[in-house]
Amino acid sequence: MGILLFILIFCVVVIAHEFGHFIIAKMNGINVVEFSVGMGPCIFSFTKGGTKYAIRLLPLGGACMFEGEDGLNLPEEEEAAKTEDGADESVANTELGKKSGAFPDAPVFARIATVVAGPIFNFILAFFFSMIIVGSYGADMPVVQMVQEDGAAYAAGLRDGDKIVSMDGKKIHLYREISLRSMLNRGEDIKVSYERDGEVYQTVITPRYDEKAGRYYMGLYGAGQYEKPGFVGTLQYSAYEVGYWIETTFKSLELLIQGQVSKDDVSGPVGMAQTVNDIYTQSKPDGVFYIWLNMLNFAILLSANLGVLNLLPFPALDGGRLVFLLVEAVRGKPIPPEKEGFVHMIGMVCLMVLMAFVLYNDIAKLF
To answer: What pTM does this model have?
Structure first.
């Protein structure tokens, strides 16, 4: 059951991403050659409005391919259309000032919008799911449920029931933001503003190292007070939820680059499917409603992750294509297509190698 739920969630997230590319491309007159979910051999497809819609065997991603992108050939019927003197009709139309529908022929800012739309739609999907969770269950308010008496926070003056307002100058909206800063702390002092009985106080917490756990702790416990904030508040806290997962993704990437995250902490499709199965198993005794909420929470995490990762300036990713488009916008002319295509091809090879490693690592962790 967990595997089926993962595939469903993954497909919804991928469809949202590719639909972002699709709808903005259509709005800008760019022809979409194929809209597909999954990778590898095609198991089902149909064509409508000049676009092939396909489901492919491996649930590892998706694609929205545009006419003329990376040398993609025009549809066969357009290739066959010739003017009487043997010239390609689409070329003749372009010379007359008509749009051919090819991606390279669209204005540079239309192409930028089309590329950015995929990640943006992932953030929109995460926001929509967050509204369901916050509206149904509430938001986890940054209220301290218990302060450990021999801990760093108690020594700094915090007590049960205090509401954390900010940490190191950053506004705190959710208790999980406090937990994130605790997990990432390496012994640095934390400047804290907190509210008690309507008054705001400032203090400094010096986290204490726990040798058994191998990390620093503030000695705070919370994440138990949920409040439904009303309609406007639901919109606000849904944005905070998405912002939290975006920040978490960036922090995780930072730790990975710094070498503070091992390969065992990285999961691919198999590892995520196992995580979904664990969530399902743990939520099952609480009923369908909690299974639903926890699956939505995982979908928010996955969608925000996909949005952030695709914005990274790496070849073959949306962020890599965006770099070339921004360079074109600045210099007034595009990078030669063959050079850009070569860079993206190298990036795709690297991504395939990385995916193979992550898949192997996922399987190895099962045994």
So the answer is: 0.85
Token pair listed for 201: 């106080």
Same-domain status, 144 and 208: yes
| Total domains present in the chain | 2
Q: Are 191 and 204 in contact (CB under 8 A)?
A: yes
Range of the domain at 181: 140-227
**Is the same domain home to 113 and 146?**
no
> Cα separation of 236 and 345, whole Å?
41
147 and 95 inside one domain: no
Give first-to-last CA distance, the chain, whole Å: 21
- Taking the C-alpha atoms of residue 79 and residue 74, their distance in angstroms, rounded to an integer, is 6
Residue 7 lies in a domain: yes
pLDDT at 344 over 60: yes
Q: Which two tokens stand for residue 290?
A: 């909690």
Contacts of residue 312, defined as CB under 8 A and 6 or more positions apart, other chains included, come to 253, 319, 320
pLDDT band at 263; cut points 50, 70, 90? low
Residue with tokens 């100058």: 169
Residue 142 Cα distances to 146, 162, 245, 321, angstroms: 12, 9, 16, 39
151 in the same domain as 37: no
Residues 147 and 130 in one domain: no
**pLDDT category of residue 235 using cuts at 50, 70 and 90:** very high
147 and 90, same structural domain?
no
Same domain as 146, residue 124: no
Judge whether residue 25 has pLDDT over 60.
yes
